[in-house]
Amino acid sequence: MVNKTKRIVILSEIEFSKTLSLLTTEIIEKVKNLDKLLLVGIPTRGIDLAEVLKKKLISKTGFKIRKGIIDPTFYRDDQNRIGTRLIKATDIPIPIEEKEILLIDDVIYTGRTVRAAMDALHSWGRPKSIMLLVMVDRGNRELPIHPDFCGIKVPTKENETIYVRLKNVDDEEGVFLSSFSSEDIS
User: Fold this and answer.
1) Could you report the per-residue pLDDT of 76-129, keeping only the tens digit for each?
2) Which of 50, 115, 147, 172 has the most Cβ atoms closer than 10 angstroms to its Cβ?
3) Would residue 25 count as lying in a domain?
């Protein structure tokens, strides 16, 4: 039996850039008080995506946009299933009371990472609101969590994986789908 991987481009570099610009515009339209906005990236790609969005927001508005990191690893209810990874230090640069938090993750799937991130955030205080931005919603939610801002919806199967790639980290940019299949070879 041989495992074969197939990679499909969902968003090219140009489409990815346009999607980021649209998401930035949506944030500006929806968040009335940008000086109360705190972008909070979820490891791993959510951190890098938050940095890209921060730069775009500053460029479009001139506002000083703050960014933080929240690692929800110890708040997960499914560690036995997914295992652990190297912990990223949580960094919340300002008090979150009365702030509008925009949690940022690259892909939403079951919703468990986002739920854990919200639990972790509440250990830092009580924000005015928490919104969610994801680049890709791949469906198959186990919890009733849905993004406020979404780049693209890509319904997936269990044997498929979505990768968000960023130029400053991966030397390429875009969204890709990989599917794994097993075939018998005689």
Assistant:
1) 776 666 555 566 778 999 999 999 999 999 999 999 999 999 999 999 999 999
2) 50
3) yes
Nearest to 46 by CA among 2, 90, 14: 90
For the segment 8-13, the average pLDDT, to the nearest whole number, is: 97
Neighbour tally for 36: CB within 10 Å: 15
Write out the residue range of the structural domain in which residue 141 sits.
11-73+88-156
> Residue 183 and residue 186: Cα distance in Å, rounded?
10
> For residue 20, is it within any domain?
yes
Structure tokens at 8: 């499909």
Q: Decide if 78 is inside a domain.
A: no
CATH code of the domain in which 113 resides:
3.40.50.2020
The rounded distance, in Å, linking the Cα atoms of 21 and 135 is: 12
3 state SS for 118-154: HHHHHCCCCCCEEEEEEEEECCCCCCCCCCCEEEEEC
pTM comes to 0.90
Does pLDDT of 154 surpass 90? yes
